[in-house]
Design goal:
It contains seven helices and seven strands. The protein is an alpha+beta fold. The strands form two sheets. The chain has a five-stranded mixed beta sheet with strand order 5-4-3-6-7. It is globular. The chain starts with a helix and ends with a helix. One of its GO terms (molecular function) is isomerase activity. It holds the Pfam family MDMPI_N.
Length: about 260
């Protein structure tokens, strides 16, 4: 990752957290998050704040192994009211972005994934916030929009995570092997925003391309991203499923980790 891309991700961590703060601040913090039903809106916000701090601690300390969860505060020490939560979210995002900028994208640090550099964490935390901002907006019943660049990048990253998990032998991935099956994502509002995903005997492969597949998911790019992250049901009237809907359902069920 180059320095410019890394800097953009750092900016997005702060900007998206600002949108999250605005969404959460006027909402019922005790409301259940429909897309993460084990959490209230307050707990969702705390999860995001803690994730930012955890990544920031990894980068700040140049950790060579996972940072223990107890080293990162799970919630604001000033209480769980809206003002304290708002300030806590802002502080966590700013601190993590600062640590990432200071480190630069090539700094070697621990990660759970395919890349052990700070650049992995700038992207991961920005895109983590993309998805959880959608959770918050759904809970607060306010509109959610995402830039085409970030929506597409979120799909790209999720496909990388799926391929990585399969390569690591994740048992949920076994049913996603088998030659001759494929999925196609086709954004109807952004030129060239298409993905062809093939389920081969050796694992999942994908590329940005148009092509025939066993099942196609069509709709606005943000909605494709939400379906792919299981934040919007594939039978929503905002998207269209053509072909083998059961294959798309299988994909969504087997990529529900994380």
């Amino acid at each position: 990752m180059d320095l410019r891309a890394h800097g953009r991700y750092c900016d997005e961590i702060v900007r998206l957290t600002g949108e999250l703060r605005a969404t959460v601040k006027g909402a019922d913090l005790d409301a259940t998050v429909p897309t993460c039903p084990d959490w209230t809106l307050r707990e969702l916000a705390q999860h995001v704040g803690r994730a930012h701090r955890w990544a920031g601690e990894i980068v700040r300390t140049r950790a060579t192994e996972a940072v223990a969860p107890e080293k990162v505060p799970a919630h604001t020490p000033e209480g769980d009211g809206p003002d304290a939560l708002d300030a806590w979210l802002a502080d966590g995002a700013a601190g993590t972005a600062a640590a990432l900028r200071e480190a630069g994208p090539e700094a070697e640090v621990w990660s759970w994934a395919w890349e052990r550099r700070a650049g992995f964490w700038s992207r991961r935390m920005a895109l983590e916030t993309v998805v959880h901002l959608a959770d918050a907006a759904l809970t607060a019943k306010v509109p959610y929009t995402m830039s085409p660049e970030l929506a597409a990048d979120t799909i790209d990253e999720w496909l990388q995570i799926v391929a990585f998990a399969q390569a690591q032998g994740d048992p949920e991935m076994a049913e996603l092997r088998g030659a001759g099956r494929s999925l196609h994502l086709h954004a109807t509002d952004v030129p060239d925003a298409e993905w062809l995903i093939e389920l081969g005997e050796d694992g999942v492969t994908w590329r940005r391309a148009h092509g025939k597949a066993n099942v196609a998911l069509r709709g606005p790019l943000t909605d494709l991203m939400l379906v792919f992250n299981r934040r919007l049901a594939p039978d929503s009237d905002r998207v269209e499923v053509l072909g083998d809907a059961a294959l798309l359902d299988l994909w969504l069920a087997r990529t529900s980790f994380g």
